[in-house]
Amino acid sequence: MRNELEGDILKILVTEEQIKARVAELGEELGRRFQDKNPLFLGVLKGSFVFMADLVRACPVRSDVEFIAVSSYQNATVSSGRVKINHDLQQDITGRNLVIVEDILDSGNTLAFLKDYFLTKGAASITIATLLDKPSRREKAVTADFVGFEVPDEFVVGYGLDYSQRYRNLPYIGVLKPEVYTNSR
Ligand code: PRP
Q1: Is the Cβ atom of 106 under 6 angstroms away from ligand 1?
Q2: Given a cut of 90, is residue 1 above it in pLDDT?
Q3: From the CB of 102, is ligand 1 less than 6 Å away?
Q4: What's the CA-to-centroid distance between 166 and ligand 1, angstroms?
Q5: Which residue of 34, 43, 116, 162 is most buried, as measured by CB atoms within 10 A?
Q6: Is pLDDT above 90 for 7?
Q7: How crowded is residue 125: how many other Cβ atoms within 10 Å of its Cβ?
């Protein structure tokens, strides 16, 4: 059955096969890094949910999962992004080796905030795994330890990433047609 979202996609940037192969590699690399360290995979909702599900299954070590939901927003008078926690941690992370799992690292505002937050909560170490990295948009000095793919400054959706809460269920990373976001809202 043809995916009814496909008509809104200008081009595919990262195919389903490329994602699958890269996630398998990342899982193995994380496995080597965290063998016997019982990492806590910490997904940043909502965007990370697809990557998180595939990554933890690709990583062959004893691990736990946790989630936090945040949203960042721009205030007209404040140029730096502010991050709000919508759903907080449900467990003590004191002394844990965290692997923060993100779908995309963009301005860096979200991860800069979260790194500080998790350190104040007593994390022993913080490792960042992001499926996509858009370094051209960086505002905060945040780097990821594990990156799936570096992407140009285009409107990417799919594999967890949304536009207006849609397209998260596309199995690949695509670029949205400009008319989709210029005609609505
Ligand atoms: C996206 C993404 C990251 C953040 C990255 O989340 O999932 O959490 O933006 O951007 P930054 O580096 O500029 O902070 P979004 O706020 O779109 O929410 P979502 O995860 O629910 O889609």
Answers
A1: yes
A2: no
A3: yes
A4: 14
A5: 43
A6: yes
A7: 14
Q: 150 pLDDT exceeds 90?
A: yes
- For residues 104 and 122, give the distance between their C-alpha atoms in angstroms, rounded to a whole number: 25
Q: For residue 78, what pLDDT is reported?
A: 42
Please list the alpha-helical segments (H only) found in the chain: 16-34, 49-58, 109-120, 178-183
Task: Identify residue 136 by its one-letter amino acid code.
Answer: S
Query: Of all atoms in ligand 1, which is nearest to the CA of residue 140?
Result: 12
Q: Which tops the pLDDT comparison, 181 or 32?
A: 32
pLDDT tens profile 73-131:
554 344 457 899 999 999 999 999 999 999 999 999 999 999 999 999 999 999 999 99
Token pair belonging to 162 = 């949304």
Residue 82's identity, in one-letter code, is R
Angle formed at CA 32 by CA 28 and CA 34, multiple of 5 degrees:
110
Q: Which long-range contacts (CB under 8 A, 24 or more apart) does 160-163 make?
A: 160/46, 160/47, 160/48, 160/49, 160/50, 160/51, 160/103, 160/131, 161/47, 161/103, 161/104, 161/132, 162/46, 162/47
